[in-house]
Amino acid sequence: MSGTTEAIVCARDSRPDPCSLCAARHLSVCNVLAEDGLRRLNSISDHQDFGAGEILVREGDPATNLFNITSGAVRVYKLLPDGRRQIVGFLFSGDFLGLATGDRYAFSAEALSTGSACRFQKKSYRKMLVEQPDLETALLDRASHELQAAHNQMLLLGRKTAVERLASFLADLAARDRRAGGAGRIIQLPMTRAEIADYLGLTTETVSRVTSRLKTRGVIRLLSLHSLSIEKPAELAELAGLDAGDGA
Amino acid sequence: MSGTTEAIVCARDSRPDPCSLCAARHLSVCNVLAEDGLRRLNSISDHQDFGAGEILVREGDPATNLFNITSGAVRVYKLLPDGRRQIVGFLFSGDFLGLATGDRYAFSAEALSTGSACRFQKKSYRKMLVEQPDLETALLDRASHELQAAHNQMLLLGRKTAVERLASFLADLAARDRRAGGAGRIIQLPMTRAEIADYLGLTTETVSRVTSRLKTRGVIRLLSLHSLSIEKPAELAELAGLDAGDGA
DNA sequence: CTGCATCGTTGATCTGCGTCAAGCCTGTAT
DNA sequence: ATACAGGCTTGACGCAGATCAACGATGCAG
Predict the structure, then answer these.
(1) Which helix (H) or strand (E) holds A228?
(2) Fewest CB within 10 angstroms: A84, A182, A230, B164, which?
(3) pLDDT of residue A20
(4) Alpha helical stretches, state H, B12-159
(5) Which of A193, A142, A174, A130 lies closest to A28 in space, CA to CA?
(6) Is there a domain that residue A207 lies in?
């Protein structure tokens, strides 16, 4: 969206301050940094534009880089030797890539669409964290949220039916849209059915069938292959298993 | 194991230093703290002994406490309204409980066996983190590892077969035993089959059947209901899907 | 030792989702 | 426009694991 503008800014030599122009800044961990912190962060960062399908991180490679996604979308996944794939998350503008990382990447990350990211050397970033405790706190908060999301996904993958999985997925996207200031009614699906399937532990066929069922029931309406409207949010939430939350 | 000793130490008024006697210390985040840090930590902590089945945390309650497990075992789980349960993790001595927490607990935690924990007020702990950046770094590292483990579990729940799930589970327990200094051959299972099932996204019957199959194949040998010996570690690892790791 | 409750195992049957297969839709290149 | 490729949908069928059911093991209370 604002990718070209950023690229131009970064290409200029007398850049005023890339971070202050960054559209993702208020969504990202960087927003806890003051003027000098941003300058310092900027000095250790690289701007990277990527095209659809481009690989940012490959499972098993030495974990040298960390990323802050500034635009576009990314899929993060793990593979079994025979090719079975589990997508562990989709990242969007403002998301941090590289939290769950030891010496080597335990996941791969590929661009879903064109986009851009700030890239850091892990070493420099760690040094930065020592100097900027606020940033470390912000990262810890992120990690907590991601861990919570991972737990929810474990519940989904371990115990929910196909309908519940898709409903949960759509409800999550709606919630994300609301957090970004939208109404949570029109949902964009920048990923393919195969990717949704690999995220939900299903097959493309099942995702397709369940989508049709929700459509027939009038819960959703397809606007195009990659966007839909939620017609009955309450029913969707119920299907997702969000009514009571806990039996208590 | 050392529960009674600790209880006696904590009951004494002129305690020399509970932390320095804590058997879980070298396994826990506290090990990054110096003398004064430990004293400070101790001053904001409560010791809590618990019996089997005791509830430490209930999903949906205000998240006021954080815990450091010092002995025993704990199951952490989430429920669907109709009672379906997903265990998101088992915690043992040295593990931290409460990382993935917002204002309210998003999970429940119950003692699997008798044991003990250091309990902190979340508020005091957060203050402590500001004063002790090393502790915050250690927590961030923990969170990273947990997130990685969660991703592995997502792969397991979303894409592995029943045999692969159980094999992965046993291989994980073996790895944990090795990390704790054991040989990784004799595995303790302090949980029931139902709990293993709810952790692996299966039913008790399937866990039982698959266990039998592994036994018949000679991969494992049951020593009792709650302990077994790994007879063919290599075969177990292969069944778990750990041979190649990534298809690259 | 006896009784009882809980947990675990094994078998028979069922079913939700995967697999296989065919056809359709969408976008892009010529 | 036309053709092609990749993605999506729908149908028929099969199977891994769930469900239902019965029985055996374990451990605790009296």
Answers:
(1) strand A227-230
(2) A182
(3) 78
(4) 35-43, 122-131, 133-159
(5) A142
(6) yes
Rounded to the nearest angstrom, the gap between the alpha carbon of residue A104 and the centroid of all alpha carbons in its chain is: 20
Q: Is A134 on the interface with B (CB under 8 A)?
A: no
Q: Domain holding A97: CATH number?
A: 2.60.120.10
Of B102, B130, B154, the CB nearest to A148: B102
CB within 8 Å of B153: residues ≥ 6 apart: A150, A154, B88
Question: Would you tell me how many other CB atoms lie within 10 Å of the CB of residue B149?
Answer: 17
Please judge whether B154 and A152 are an interchain contact, meaning their C-beta atoms are less than 8 angstroms apart: no
Per-residue pLDDT at B15: 55
Strand C CB shell (< 7 Å): A 161-163, 201-203, 205-206, 224-225; B 192-194, 204-205, 207-209, 211-212, 222, 225-226
What is the chain B residue with the closest CA to A245? B81
From the CA of A169, how many Å to the C1' of D2? 39
Give me the residue from B58, B84, B130 closest to A159, CB to CB: B84
Query: How many folded domains does chain A comprise?
Result: 2
Q: pLDDT tens digit string along B207-232?
A: 999 999 999 999 999 999 999 999 99
In a domain, A155, yes or no: no
CA distances from B121 to B42, B73, B96 (A): 12, 21, 14
